[in-house]
Design brief:
This protein is α+β, with helices and mostly antiparallel strands. The protein is built from 12 helices and 9 strands. The strands form 3 sheets. The chain has a 4-stranded antiparallel sheet with strand order 2-3-7-6, with no helix packed on it. Helix 5 runs antiparallel to helix 8. The two termini are 39 Å apart.
Length: 406
């Protein structure tokens, strides 16, 4: 275990912000606390218990919660900015926050009005932290019916948030193929989280596998079901573009953190090349060019991400009446920014080394973690298929068919 396992991340937080700018500023304060030992925590195996508590204490977990229940009452454009800001310090915690906010929103995506009200009141009031056992690449968890209850049984190879979550979103399929979502306490008997997440990046996301052994849920808690029948609407399919924008923003946050920390190192530690003719590395034209080039590229994708987030706001605001055309056109834009964010984040996190020098590869600086984090998660789904969505729309006006990845 790392020495940071027992270090509480405490601060006397003032009253919750009431504006988007205030929440982004609060996220920056959270990032400052996370940055103190981000390198050390990346090397360890301690569960991010204190980091999740920090997200709760700061109010970020209830950012999207109704104000009447003590939540932030904010929208997705603000949430994306908050995720990006936290990720500048720690990509793992940025991912945890992003996934949490998506699953916090899940009731709105697929639930009935009564379920939405009940879940959001409970989640906001109790500051639940959400995990999700929803990995579509695995064989579906089986859901069977037993009277007024349904029973989930199966395995998922990934369950982000697992051991540090208060509640977990389960997903499985009934015998007729109909998918079912339900929220259960993470300490529910039959729900076993396996401490087997051991990847090169995003090491503190608690994304290990989970076994689901006859976990019972009342039919009334099956999201979107009325009298055991699902009530479909187009907004049900907004989970994919919404979480893809979550991905975009923690990629961009990681890239921003890498670039800012690299620039600080170059100013203070990078030595001019002995044959360069310059006394300071920051006066060398090729180093200036690297930072100028990477910054321009990152700025452009950040701007596109913000624009696409604002475009999506009208869809979230009109959740009960959104059309397939509106949904499809939004997904095309999301696919475009996902492709560019993937490319720029990988470029930034690898190219910074050319401006840092050999000494910067020492493990104590942890510059490699930025690339490892981006490289790990950008393999979530192939970026070529995002470009294909855009290309098909340009050439044939074809809109992406809603799937688990589009």
């Amino acid at each position: 275990m790392t020495t940071t396992e027992n270090r509480p991340l405490t601060q006397n937080w003032p009253d919750a912000p009431t504006t988007s700018e205030g929440w982004i500023a609060r996220a920056a304060n959270v990032a400052t606390l996370l940055a103190v030992d981000a390198v050390e925590r990346d090397k360890g195996i301690a569960a991010p218990v204190h980091e999740v508590q920090l997200l709760k204490d700061s109010g970020l977990v209830t950012l999207l919660g109704p104000a009447e229940h003590g939540g932030g009452g904010q929208d997705w454009p603000t949430a994306y900015q908050v995720i990006r800001t936290v990720s500048t310090a720690d990509g793992s915690i940025g991912q945890l926050l992003g996934y949490h906010l998506l699953w916090f929103w899940a009731a709105r995506l697929v639930g009935t009005p009564e379920q939405i009200q009940a879940v959001e009141e409970a989640a906001t009031t109790n500051r639940w932290f959400f995990g999700g056992a929803v990995n579509p690449r695995d064989n579906d968890v089986q859901v069977t019916e037993e009277g007024d209850q349904i029973v989930f049984t199966g395995e998922k190879s990934f369950s982000t948030g697992s051991r540090v979550s208060d509640v977990t979103v389960l997903e499985g399929a009934l015998p007729d193929g109909q998918h079912v979502f339900a929220i259960v306490p993470s300490d529910t008997p039959g729900l076993s989280f396996h401490d087997d997440w051991d990847n090169i990046g995003q090491r503190q996301t608690e994304s290990g596998s989970v076994s689901i052994d006859h976990v019972r849920v009342n039919w009334s808690d099956a999201a979107g079901f009325v009298d055991k029948k699902f009530q479909p609407r187009v907004y049900n399919t907004l989970n994919v573009p919404t979480i893809q924008l979550v991905f975009v923003n923690f990629y961009l946050g990681i890239a921003r953190g890498a670039l800012d920390q690299a620039a600080s190192y170059s100013r203070d530690k990078t030595r001019a090349w002995l044959h360069s003719g310059f006394d300071k590395a920051i006066d060398e034209p090729y180093i200036i060019d690297i930072y100028g080039d990477l910054t321009a590229k990152l700025w452009s994708v950040e701007a596109l991400a913000d624009t696409v987030a604002l475009e999506g706001k009208s869809i979230h605001d009109n959740a009960w009446n959104v059309t397939e055309q509106e949904r499809g056109e939004h997904e095309v834009r999301v696919a475009a920014v996902k492709a560019r964010a993937t490319e720029v984040a990988l470029e930034v996190t690898s190219t910074i080394f050319e401006a840092l020098g050999a000494r910067a590869t020492a493990s104590k600086y942890g510059f490699d973690r930025f690339w490892r984090n981006v490289r790990t998660h950008t393999l979530h789904d192939p970026v070529a298929y995002k470009r294909r969505e855009v290309g098909r729309w340009v050439l044939t006006d074809e809109l992406p068919e809603p799937t688990w990845y589009s």
